[in-house]
Amino acid sequence: MKPPLRMALAASSACTLLAGCSMLNTTPAIPDDWTPRGSVSALVAFAPGGGSDRSARVVAESLNDLDADFNVNVQNREGGSGAVGWATFLAEQGNGNALLVAESALNTLPLVYDVPFTYRDFTPLVMFAEDSRMVVADADAPYETCADLVEAGRDAPVRTGSSGRTGADALVTAEFERNGGQFSVVPYGSTGEVLTALMGGQIEVAPASAASVRPYLESGDFKALCTLTPERYDDPLMGGVPTALEQGLDAEVTIWRGVLAPDGISRVQRDYWVDAILDAMDSDLYRDYIEDDLLLPADLAGEEFEDYLDDYDAQMQEVFR
Amino acid sequence: MIDNLTLGFAAALTPENLLWCFVGVLLGTVIGILPGLGSATGVAILIPVTLTFEPLTALIMLAGIYHGSQFGATITAILVATPGEASSVVSTFDGYRMARAGRAGPALAISALGSFAAAFIALVALTTLAPVFADAALGFGPPEILAVMALGLCTIMVFSGRNLMMGAALGLAGILVSSVGVDVGSGTPRYTFDQVSLFGGLPYVEVMIGLFAIGELLNQLHRGMATPIRARFRDLLLTREDIRRSVPATARGTLVGFVLGCLPGAGTTLASFMAYGVEKRFSRNRDQLGTGAIEGVVAPDAATSSGSNANFIPTLVLGVPGGATTAVLLGAFLVYGIQPGPLLFEEQPTLVWGLLASFFIGNALLLLLNLPLAPVFAQLLRIRYSVLYPLIIVTSLVGAYSVKNSMLSVWIVVVFGFVGYAMKRMNLPVAPFVLGLVIGPLFETALVQTSALGEGEILPLLASSGPAVAILALALALVVGPAAVRAVRSRTRARRSPEASAGAGGGAPDAGAGPAPGGEEVLDAPRRPDD
């Protein structure tokens, strides 16, 4: 029987070839004048079009505008509220050519789910922005303020959406529940889907970032109930929206956005990236991003970022006990 | 409307935009041809390149890639059963059969024509009535999507051939494979065996490359090297008969693709499968489907094409991507500081209408590019398989590796290559398995959301939604109806089978034969029967 033999040969040689490729991984020592070269991946654990994706693209473009010997590509690895992407990033250990653009859910996810990582498994580089949430409802909805929502939630759960059970949206619900309201949460894949569900009338209210609800507020489809910021936004449209604090609720949500590297990279590599990212943040692109997306600028680097994360994590442990 | 389109064409027809539109569709075609490198990846890679462009020019080029890749993906699916894109998997069913029978030319040509016609119709609907369709899509919440996915699962029946239980089992196996990874609702890892690399699930593209490209290749090796196909010139061209048979199939495919394309998240892959399912059920030549019928090529391609254009309705009007590639395109919008949503059409009329006009131009360019090239591509099959197969194997494995730069992807291709080979040797239909794989996660998401909306109850929500009930009724009809018809037909066929298998020649179906039980047409005689 000739064909089966031929096939067995082909198969076995293919397997040997493949096995050979996977054994080629060796780790050379990192020289002091190390610079990244070629393709650098900036991993985002969320789908394109969302806030995390947008921040990653701004970081990537700003870095590319530095005209160094590398090119940053954004890679989206969505799934499991971020678990998939971050777990994948574990495998990059020691790789100086890999960046992770992440946000607060990196703290909250491991508190809720059994995942193989915590924020300590990565190397914090730079925190570049703080963000918060607003709560919007359909223009005809019976609620005017977030206090109304919490009040209504005392009798029967208010139906809200969430773009992830451990993301910023979940923090909003957690804050309101701490104030006494009950909510039933429908999981969606992204803020875009949550807002679509609100338009379609499937949910009653939606937490979302100021940037993503702005067009719907301008068009009059939605009305804003409150912001979860410590103070009102400094913006003609959003400035008219009171904070939850003003409405008598003890509710505030802060989420961080930052760049991290894999665990086990060398000091040289860490310093290189911290400097490069801080440089990149000097761009018009970054400034426009902060302004357009109604974010608070931040520039905590290295150890400062690490300390911030420790504090933040302690707070989150309270919320997600 | 006309004013808007005039504005759009004026914006899109500048020499610069025209050039980049052409570059986009050409690049897209190449990206589509390469297995593994799908349009989503292609667009994502090229976003940085376009950053120096005007936003409109950049979006025109990126959209050109999106359209071009659908065309390109079909070429390799038809010629060598290697789908370059998930949505062109269906093209392998009949397209590859046609190619093996020496009719690769017509298969490629009709695919280009059908795709263009479908795109044109979808675009007219898109430009005139986008807000209306977007409103309708808004009414489709989780319960309705759940019903659509249930309907999708029921089409497995259509793909199962004679052995329904086997088809259902393979469909469930597909769903089982699709459930590997972190689950949507709770984030619990399933079947990952503590392998972090499996958290993201078994990547769909790699599984496809394995099942189809490598599986077919192993099968050919087993059988002994197939001889190259030397088609006569006459066989490279479309016949009038081909076109006549394709018109209704294109219309059906376009409709199916458009409806599914409007729904956020359903995607074009499902549309192509559903269109094939519709052909299997309603086409006049449905008995030939799977043996190299032209309807089986043109309908799914039309669905993919109209679906990929209709995908822009939720993307542009609602700001919610319809599929993977429009999701990346949406990201591109944001990079340029454009926020898709209810005000996009009012605030950026030049951009939106220019982009829509460029879709017309891009599709026309693709037709001009692909129609004359169809016979040329078909000549690829003259290459000896000892040269062609190593090429396929290398591009498949390199393509798989390049998706995520991971060896795991390559192993998945190899493993599923053997799975595909085993399924072919055991004569098991691959389609139900693939369909389960595609629909599994979509079905699950809708199920989790519906259950959250109903606070743990699913049935009351489904029952209270008119569209959901209608779709479920359709699904039920799909499952029970044919079984009854088939029972009747198999009795008739038992009496007629001797003469039905001896047909030859063009197989001109008689107009008006209708779906009567006895109206089976003779097979489009394969010039090289290879089974």
UniProtKB/TrEMBL annotation, chain A:
Pfam families: TctC. Residues 1-31 form the signal peptide. InterPro entries: BUG, Bug_dom1. It comes from the Bacteria. Gene3D superfamilies: Bordetella uptake gene, domain 1 (3.40.190.150), Periplasmic binding protein-like II (3.40.190.10). Keywords: Signal. Belongs to the UPF0065 (bug) family. This is Tripartite tricarboxylate transporter substrate binding protein. It comes from Streptomonospora nanhaiensis.
UniProtKB/TrEMBL annotation, chain B:
InterPro entries: DUF112_TM. The lineage of its organism: Bacteria, Bacillati, Actinomycetota, Actinomycetes, Streptosporangiales. This is Tripartite tricarboxylate transporter permease. Residues 18-435 form the DUF112 domain. Residues 491-531 are annotated as: Disordered. The chain crosses the membrane at residues 17-37, 44-65, 71-96, 108-134, 140-159, 164-182, 255-278, 316-338, 350-371, 383-401, 430-448, 468-488. Pfam families: TctA. Keywords: Membrane, Transmembrane, Transmembrane helix. Residues 510-520 have a biased composition (Low complexity). It comes from Streptomonospora nanhaiensis.
